Amino acid sequence: MTSKSSANYESSKELYLGFDLSTQQLKIIATNGKLDHLGTYNVEFDQEFGEKYEVKKGVRVNEQSGEIVSPVAMWLDAIDFLFGKMKQQNFPFDKVVGISGSGQQHGSVYWSSDAPQLLSNLDASTTLASQLKSAFTFPESPNWQDHSTGEEIKVFEDTVGGPEKLAELTGSRAHYRFTGLQIRKLAVRKNPELYRKTHRISLVSSFVASVLSGEITTIEQAEACGMNIYDIKKHDYDDELLSLAAGVHPKADSASEEEREKGIASLKEKLGEVKKVSYDNCGTISSYFVKKFGLNPSARIYPFTGDNLATIISLPLHPNDILLSLGTSTTVLLVTQNFKPSAQYHLFVHPTMPNHYMGMICYCNGALAREKVRDALNEKYSLEKNSWDKFNEVLDSSKKFDNKLGIYFPLGEIVPNASAQFKRSKLANGKIEDVESWDIDEDVSSIVESQSLSARLRAGPMLNGSDSSNSSTPELDESSSGESSKLKKMYHELHSEFGDLYTDGEKHTYGSLTSRPRNTFFVGGASNNLSIVRKMASILGAMDHNYKVEIPNACALGGAYKASWSHTCEKKNQWINYDDYISQNFHFDDLDPVQVKDEWESYFKGMGMLAKMEENLKHD
Ligand code: XUL
């Protein structure tokens, strides 16, 4: 998002930096206290360090083991390099008063016992990487794409009683990339000795904050939810899960009671305290950066968070707002007060709004699946392969739900958990009948409809209206009128046609089927296709607005906003609600409102049909 404001570095008294250490690059964004986006700086790892560190797309891959890692020293070089580049461009470092940012989620960094001493005595005349050589026990950080921890997934889920149980505790079922599993792999299989010698463990986000502040900082609470060891309701690590991560579980590791206790205590020390959501700083910029690049010595470092978490705070998202990221894959992020965990999605503590959560649903089949339909359509009409014109024309002319739906999974899908497959069905006389094939034109609306309905079905339980007060079936009062009795009637009709509806094994309630988002924000590549956005928006049925937003730097921007909000609260010594702060300062003219015909009601039945079709999908 490029701000339309005329502010610049000269006219801005105080500046904030937002970092984003992602898989392939390090990015820094500069903003002022009015949330004006003033500059973007980045370094691509492959381009600058590809040869030196033997990385491709920022990572080293071991095909056989499924291990995917990044060298930590490369990140240190990247920090020096990028600050150096900014200095060369005369960036006014002396105006920087606050720094925060984000890192790729789940990745971890393993500090040696030399680290605290080395970090606090950095010599500005040489480099970070050369001085921090002995600061790490493991020189590489497991990356979120890693899939080498199949064994650990099984142990974590079996020990707590299955995926749903783990999700109830930690906000997610076990995933390869989640930090607790990665720690267990290192502690049990990879190198128990180096694990034992590890003094502290940071996440990628807290690693950057540690380097900048010259001391190992705490892990931030929202990020801690990406580890599979943090009990969200208890606001603390779970001892049983810690014992698994440390490899000292009495059953899984045949550990004695003493070993268990020692192992848990030692891992707790390595991880340090989890910092609850707050505006407090976690340090001041280290003198290394002051001397070397001219940073303002009083610049404060505020806790860094995960990249998806930083994305939601780059926009004025209120509870019940949805951010739909339409990239190669589709990601649904939403803000909610309703802690309703499920094995099929993720819940994280919200990074700036206490008692709020971020829900995250990840789909594999997004743009790629739509492109396959587009290509087949263009082939039928002998049109140019990559053109969306015909696809959009067909989509624009499709109106309400017409009792037809398809499921298009050229790749295996995460939610619902299913193998690669295609399915087309018709609803006739209350029965769902499979259709062998139909005209490719039918696929156009059908794929966008089913993708939207899937997100609607899965976001529903997390929306605020679907809390326990709305879980039972409401009485139908034929005599009353108005919005709520209309909804009740629709719900009763749906129920009599399809019976109880389940999504990913979870029974839907009145509330989960009838709750609507407040606003929907569309981002990512396909958000530039207004026909797709309009159709999706009409089905998702936001009550207030639909916006299309361009936020190529969302994670870094979210970091800069976090720094400016924290710094403002600290200065005033007063809590300011984050959504109020953002809404007051946000440049709403950067959002493109999308006019949408509300078809939410017409697609109510579509939810029933899709839920039933999903019951008969093939699994691996
Ligand atoms: C989220 C995840 C990825 C990374 C990307 O769970 O693993 O989105 O955060 O950097």
Automatic annotation (TrEMBL):
Extract the Gene3D superfamilies matched here: 3.30.420.40
- Give all residue intervals belonging to the Carbohydrate kinase FGGY N-terminal domain: 144-245
Polar residues: which segments have biased composition? Answer: 465-474
In the record, biological process GO terms are: D-xylose metabolic process; xylulose catabolic process
Q: Which domain of life is it from?
A: Eukaryota
Q: Which UniProt keywords apply?
A: ATP-binding, Carbohydrate metabolism, Kinase, Nucleotide-binding, Transferase, Xylose metabolism
What are its E.C. numbers? 2.7.1.17
Q: Which GO terms describe its molecular function?
A: ATP binding; D-xylulokinase activity
Q: Tell me which SUPFAM superfamilies the record gives.
A: Actin-like ATPase domain
Domain Carbohydrate kinase FGGY C-terminal spans what residues? 324-566
Region (Disordered) residue ranges read 458-484
Described purpose of this protein according to its UniProt entry = Highly specific D-xylulose kinase which participates in the catabolism of xylose. Xylose is a major component of hemicelluloses such as xylan. Most fungi utilize D-xylose via three enzymatic reactions, xylose reductase (XR), xylitol dehydrogenase (XDH), and xylulokinase, to form xylulose 5-phosphate, which enters pentose phosphate pathway.
- What's this protein's family per the entry? Belongs to the FGGY kinase family.
From the Swiss-Prot or TrEMBL record, give the protein name: Xylulose kinase
**Species per Swiss-Prot/TrEMBL record:** Meyerozyma guilliermondii (strain ATCC 6260 / CBS 566 / DSM 6381 / JCM 1539 / NBRC 10279 / NRRL Y-324)
